[in-house]
């Protein structure tokens, strides 16, 4: 836990440092408050909005390996590891991808994830909990789901989407806060400055919530695509069986943080903020596709 917190703090310090440097070098540091017009302000907000998501994307593979203690398989040490590596290599070849790093992480929850800065610079890993509760056919489908995420470029797509959303959260909150503060300007400059600051904070929270709803909706859409991709690498029935194995053990299934939650489902949150569709809907979509093909 301490290692994860330390890495999170280090990443945020890096993000703040990068934002400060870019704004200073480009001269946009004075534009963030709108003093130089809307377009420079939008550019400054884009720097703020994209910096975090891009840095997170670039650091994702190294961070997750350290924070989650992922054991990367260089040379298989047993029969299961040899089989697992063969499955990933075979699926990577079928998708025209460079072989990703292949890992296992120690966790009681049945879970898996794919991460990395690009299609050909990625990592796929499964948990020891997944290995205990699923058979090889189900694990192969899980791996196919993760490989589909990589092939679809989901990590990059989600990072760019988050950057766009962050940009407009910062931009719109300042535009509206400025309008609110201008209406209260008759009470004096210090009062107007206070209104602007408070309005900006409140609006960023409100717009941030709306942005999260949009990002979560898009993430749910990508999960269906990854399920379909995993089914093409195995079969619709095999993919559905893997999801059903999770449904049978909801008490073990937890979300991984942020973009690493590539396969897990949100057992207790099935509302607008859920990043994964309910397992029942995912299974139904796979079985419907199987019926159409049959």
Automatic annotation (TrEMBL):
InterPro entries: HtpX_protease (IPR050083), Pept_M48_protease_HtpX (IPR022919), Peptidase_M48 (IPR001915). It is an enzyme of class 3 (hydrolase). GO terms for molecular function: metalloendopeptidase activity; zinc ion binding. The keyword RNA-binding does not apply. Signal peptide: none annotated. GO terms for cellular component: plasma membrane. GO terms for biological process: proteolysis. Pfam families: Peptidase_M48 (PF01435). Gene3D superfamilies: Metalloproteases ('zincins'), catalytic domain. Its cofactor is Zn(2+). The chain crosses the membrane at residues 7-26, 38-58, 155-176, 196-218. Its EC number is 3.4.24.-. The active site is at 146. It is found in: Cell membrane. This is Protease HtpX. The gene is htpX.
């Amino acid at each position: 836990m301490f290692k994860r917190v330390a890495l999170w703090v280090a990443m945020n310090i890096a993000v703040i440092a990068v934002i400060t440097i870019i704004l200073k070098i480009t001269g946009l540091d004075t534009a963030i408050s709108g003093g130089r017009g809307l377009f420079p302000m939008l550019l400054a907000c884009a720097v703020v909005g994209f910096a975090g998501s891009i840095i997170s994307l670039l650091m994702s593979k190294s961070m997750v390996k350290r924070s989650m203690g992922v054991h990367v398989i260089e040379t298989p040490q047993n029969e299961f590891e040899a089989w697992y590596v063969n499955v990933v290599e075979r699926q990577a070849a079928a998708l025209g991808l460079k072989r990703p790093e292949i890992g296992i992480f120690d966790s009681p929850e049945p879970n898996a994830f794919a991460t990395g800065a690009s299609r050909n610079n990625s990592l796929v890993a499964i948990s020891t909990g997944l290995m205990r509760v699923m058979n090889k056919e189900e694990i192969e489908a899980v791996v196919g789901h993760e490989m589909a995420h990589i092939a679809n470029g989901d990590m990059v797509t989600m990072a760019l989407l988050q950057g766009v959303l962050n940009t407009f959260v910062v931009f719109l909150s300042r535009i509206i806060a400025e309008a609110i503060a201008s209406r209260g300007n008759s009470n004096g400059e210090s009062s107007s400055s206070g209104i602007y600051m408070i309005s900006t904070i409140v609006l960023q929270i409100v717009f941030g919530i709306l942005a999260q709803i949009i990002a979560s909706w898009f993430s749910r859409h990508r999960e269906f695509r990854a399920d379909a991709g995993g089914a093409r690498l195995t079969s619709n029935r095999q993919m559905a069986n893997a999801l059903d194995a999770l449904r049978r053990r909801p008490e073990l299934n937890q979300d991984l943080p942020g973009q690493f939650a590539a396969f897990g489902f949100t057992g207790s949150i099935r509302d607008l903020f859920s990043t994964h569709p309910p397992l029942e809907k995912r299974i139904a979509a796979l079985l419907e596709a199987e019926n159409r093909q049959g």
